[in-house]
Amino acid sequence: MPLLDVKDLSVTFSRRGQRTVRAVDGVSFAVEAGEVVGLVGESGCGKSVTSLALMGLLPKQKGVTIGGSAMFGDTDLLQTDERSMRDIRGRDVAMIFQDPLSSLNPVVPIGIQVTEVLTRHRGLTGEAARKEAVELLNRVGIPDPSRRLKEYPHQLSGGMRQRALIAMAVACAPKLLIADEPTTALDVTIQAQILELLRELVRESGTALIMITHDLGVVAGMCDKVNVLYAGRVIESARRKPLFADPRHPYTNGLLGSVPRLDSGKGERLHAIRGSVRDVLPWPDGCAFAPRCDQRVEACVGEPPALVEDIHRHAYRCVNPESRTAEVPS
Amino acid sequence: MIRFIVRRLLQLIPTLFGLSILLFIWLRRLPGGPETAILGERGTAEMRAQIRANLGLDEPILVQYGRFMQRMLKLDLGTSISTKREVTTEFLERFPGTVELTVTAMIIAIGVGIPLGYLAARKRGSLLDSLSVGGSLIGICVPVFFLAYVLKAVFSENLHLFPSSGRQDPTIGATRITNFFVLDGLMTREWDAALDALWHLILPGIALASIPLAIIVRITRASVLEVLSEDYVRTAQSKGLTERTIRSRHILRNAMLPIVTVIGLLTGGLLSGAVLTETVFAFSGIGAFLYEAISNRDYPVLMGFIMIIAIFYVLVNLLVDFSYSLIDPRVRVR
């Protein structure tokens, strides 16, 4: 049984007088213990909403409807009441956010922001909590941790802040870690360090990681499995190697083609996907990517394509997929 | 930190100096003078001139100002023209009442305003939210003296729950030390006197609190709403923290800065006296006395009172600036 089994997750936002938005539309994926799973896509494809839904952090108000199930062990994260969710969050499932500066409370010392998790879930207080916090900061590579505990977020560099946030997230050795674009707000050199740290933590502790990103470089370096999202649906899902070697969906192919490569010929044009995420066809009317697709055929419009899985457990949602270029054992 | 306080206190000197010049000119520019207040309409020109000469008002304004400053430096504020008593004595007798009233009103306004504003923001769009937003609008709109009269009529004259006027029942015969009646009662252990003085503060305190309360509710609501959309609140939630920790450590602490600023300004404003409330409840503070002094053109009282009020205003705001640095490390002062 997988650690987390998300089935048919859907999130809709509706406001009076406005069109209902299906931010996430029947997303299914599974995460095994200790595995790194990527959720990839452009802004607005529903990847962050997916993570917030799993954490139970979507605003609880009229107009926000969540459907499907997300079995985490015996509990369905989508059906759990707020009270029990509070016990799960930070202890069993923890999250790392995009912008480390705005994600840290500016008026509370780092130390307290770390120890409050320890106090809440592990009952550590006073000197014991402080010691553990020093240990945690040390583990995420923050030098001189006992001094840093007294400092405020604005006194730390961007990389240090993200390290501190990671320390808070791994404080209770969660079984599942969700990282929502953890490197987007950082310098490239720092990005590499943070990814290396995450990789290390996952390897050492056996924590499973859901890596949410738009950066295929991150996926290539970290993920075991990849789910590509478009307009709220999974459009391609495979293990890392077959996905990179042999992308079947034109959108995935486009994403890969739009990454600049050092080994491409001089003067060769970078491939860009036409249009923007806003040019979508509503799924019921066909493939949402059809308006931007170079391989569009008649069958793309009219009926939504189903997610089909080939013999290599490589699934894609396309009626006219890219032709197989190489035979890759998965 | 000490350097900061000293620097701010030194800044008080030019402020007060400028204020004294402005006040001096402004007061003497007002039509009429103390002689009109003393003689009324019937005084002859000679009598007026005589009084002006006695008060030293016939001399050039620069000379008058020079003499005022000379006395000021010796901390002598002069004598009231209308009561013939020392301005300092008048002030020390009345200001404690105003302070007690201000403190009462602000305790009510803060104690009710911050929780109400917080709840309104957390339950945005709910009935409570609409009620507190609408109610605060009414609070701002209703004239204070009207509210004061209604409170007095209902709770004092009809229900007899609270005394209708004064600062303390004179039949108690309380001992006076500081003229802060509640404090005096506590210091002398005359509990009944302290309680009675406190009882006298409730109704005028509520009347005076209405506008500050409304403002605090609104500013708290707006500030909390802003903080609620911050990423660090979501981080706090993602850690599974309890509602209480999230509220006090992550939301209110960050929402506090604008609230504290407004509290400082409101407190400073209330300290300059509440003429209407004091009048309705026959409460002897500085408000009614200042009003009287303006109509009598009682220059020494006006100069002295306004200068001292200005000092308190600056001190309250110094306290506010100081509290910023306690709330937010990013504005920590040197």
**Which protein chains make the most extensive interface, counting residues with beta carbons within 8 Å of the other chain's beta carbons?**
A-B, 30 and 21 residues
Net shape of chain B: globular
What structural class do you assign from the helix and strand content of chain A?
A: alpha/beta
Spans of chain B with pLDDT under 50 lasting ≥5 residues? none
CATH homology group of the domain at 98-287 in chain B? MetI-like
* Low-confidence sequence ranges of chain A: none
Mean pLDDT across the residues of chain B is 88
- The CATH architecture of the domain at 98-287 in chain B comes to Orthogonal Bundle
Provide the CATH topology of the domain at 4-229 in chain A.
Rossmann fold
Level-1 CATH class name of the domain at 4-229 in chain A: Alpha Beta
How many angstroms separate the termini of chain A?
21 Å
Structural class of chain B: mainly alpha
Kindly state the number of beta strands of chain B.
Answer: 0
Q: If you had to describe this structure to a student in words, what would you say it looks like?
A:
Chain A: Keywords: ATP-binding, Cell membrane, Membrane, Nucleotide-binding, Transport. Chain A: Its main location: membrane. Chain A: It is a peripheral membrane protein. Chain A: This is Dipeptide/oligopeptide/nickel ABC transporter ATP-binding protein. Chain A: It is found in: Cell membrane. The complex is a heterodimer of chains A (330) and B (334). Chain A has 330 residues and is α/β, with parallel strands linked by helices. Chain A has a domain of 226 residues: Rossmann fold (3-Layer(aba) Sandwich), CATH 3.40.50. Helix content of chain A is 31%, strand content 21%. The longest helix of chain A has 18 residues. Chain B has 334 residues and is mainly α. Helices cover 75% and strands 0% of the residues of chain B. In chain B, α5 packs antiparallel against α6, α7 packs across α9 and α11 runs antiparallel to α14. The interface between A and B is medium-sized, with 30 and 21 residues.
